[in-house]
Specification:
Layout lengths: L2 E5 L8 H24 L12 E15 L4 E13 L2 H11 L7 H18 L3 E2 L4 E11 L3 E11 L6 E10 L8 H4 L5 H16 L24 E3 L3 E6 L12 E6 L9 H8 L3
Parallel strand pairs: 3-5
Antiparallel strand pairs: 1-2, 1-4, 2-3, 5-6, 6-7, 8-9, 9-10
Pfam family, one: PdaC
Protein name: DUF3298 domain-containing protein
Length: 278
């Protein structure tokens, strides 16, 4: 059922609940603004080799959805790193701006405007508000490589929202993306996949000959690596997002492969990457 919306355009609305909501919203914005100013000037974390600060964008729709005991609104929120070096910002642009926007402000405006147009097309009515939360974090920053995690949660109607986690790794010498082929010697790639499958089966409680068909979405029932991975202190982490190998209800899957199980298969460059962590 559609619910009526209150649109804020300088119009006086006689509602004590609505004024109370606006006061709470105003205080919340002041608090958020203070937090934003405190975060912006900060430099890279201890041990980092690149300087950056975190930037935040927070934008709301002018449409408010009135429920039985609250008012809600569509919003866009983002937190992401801005590096001192322009070439690094260019390098990570595609993983900060997932939909090709030139700025986070542009992404926010486009998202909010899409919702506003949807409401306008429905004569000022909507069944639900939308939201997008985007968080981009530097998870490793060594002289050898830069690793970034992008997490986005979004709801634009329907039974449930969408969420995705992406890991991106860049070689600091060449400023190029790091792939698994940079880490594992080409002639040992099949051996590594076998080790990874053994780890996966152990994690999932599967025997050696148990099928990967049915519950899992591996093509042809054959195990495969996710392209989505990053380095941790003691393991290589592979992350499968929802629908890649399991249903939405089961969520994403983390698969960790200890370095000790495949160190003999690593390229010289791969060894340099993990040694720069420890």
């Amino acid at each position: 059922m559609y619910r009526s919306l209150i649109k804020i355009k300088g119009k006086t609305i006689n509602s004590m609940r609505f004024y109370l909501f606006l006061r709470i919203l105003f205080i919340g914005c002041l608090f958020y603004s203070c937090q934003n100013r405190s975060v912006a000037p900060s430099l890279a974390q201890t041990g980092d080799t690149l300087s950056y600060h975190k930037k935040m964008v927070d934008e709301h729709s002018n449409y408010f959805l009135k429920g039985e005991d609250k008012l809600d609104t569509t919003y866009f929120r983002a937190s992401y790193p801005v590096f001192d070096e322009a070439k690094i910002n260019d390098l990570v642009s595609s993983i900060v701006h997932l939909e090709g926007d030139t700025s986070m402000e542009e992404a926010a405006h486009r998202f909010i405007n899409a919702y506003n147009e949807y409401v306008d097309d429905n004569n000022g009515k909507s069944t639900a508000t939308w939201n997008r939360d985007l968080r981009v974090d530097v998870v490793a920053n060594t002289p050898m490589y830069l690793a970034i995690r992008t997490k986005q949660e979004e709801y634009t109607g329907g039974a449930h929202g969408d969420h995705v986690t992406l890991y991106s790794n860049f070689d600091r010498q060449s400023n190029s993306p790091i792939t698994i082929d940079d880490i594992i010697r080409k002639e040992d790639k099949d051996k590594f996949i076998t080790i990874a499958e053994q780890c996966f089966r152990k994690q999932e409680g599967l025997h050696k000959d148990d099928t990967l068909n049915g519950k899992y979405f591996f093509e042809g029932g054959k195990f495969s690596l996710a392209d989505n991975f990053t380095f941790e202190k003691n393991e290589l982490l592979f992350y499968y997002n929802i629908y890649e190998i399991k249903s939405y209800a089961e969520g994403g899957t983390e698969l960790r492969i200890p370095y000790t199980t495949f160190k003999d298969l690593m390229s010289e460059k791969g060894l340099h990457y993990i040694n720069s962590i420890n």
